[in-house]
Write a structure and sequence with these properties.
- By secondary structure, the protein is mainly alpha-helical.
- It folds into two domains: 1-83, no CATH class; 86-125.
- It contains five helices and no strands.
- The chain has helices at residues 7-23, 26-61, 63-83, 86-97, 101-123.
- 2% of the residues are buried.
């Protein structure tokens, strides 16, 4: 998500949220604009957003951190998934399979047809 082919989208999202955080305090924003000027403040916001996005990637480069956190993350995700209702779980998984859903339906129909035909032939022969 942060490194792959769609990483720019994730970086834009991080930058947008950081930019919003910087703008959230009207007093600090106004003071910074007075001190830095409008263009200086805009450059400051851009620089903070870019550094924030780069900072978000730093833990991913640390192999030991990834190994330590992966076990905790697995426990957290397993717990959250067990708390889900079947409908919520289905809503979580459906987008992953939606593109190939027609293949699953077709395979199910063909398998059902074969099993039904075999049952008809073997059961009533």
């Amino acid at each position: 998500m942060l490194i792959g082919e769609k990483s720019e989208r994730a970086r834009r999202l991080i930058k947008r949220h950081i930019s919003t955080l910087v703008d959230d305090s009207p007093i600090a924003r106004s003071g910074a604009q007075v001190v830095m000027g409008a263009t200086g403040y805009a450059a400051f916001k851009t620089r903070i957003a870019e550094q924030g996005a780069a900072f978000a990637l730093q833990p991913l480069a640390n192999k030991q951190f990834n190994q330590e956190r992966s076990a905790a993350l697995a426990v957290l995700l397993a717990g959250k998934m067990k708390e889900m209702t079947p409908g919520e779980f289905q809503d979580l998984l459906r987008p992953a399979f939606q593109q190939d859903e027609w293949i699953l339906l077709l395979l199910g129909a063909v398998t059902g047809l074969i099993a039904g035909t075999a049952q008809l032939l073997l059961g009533f022969a």
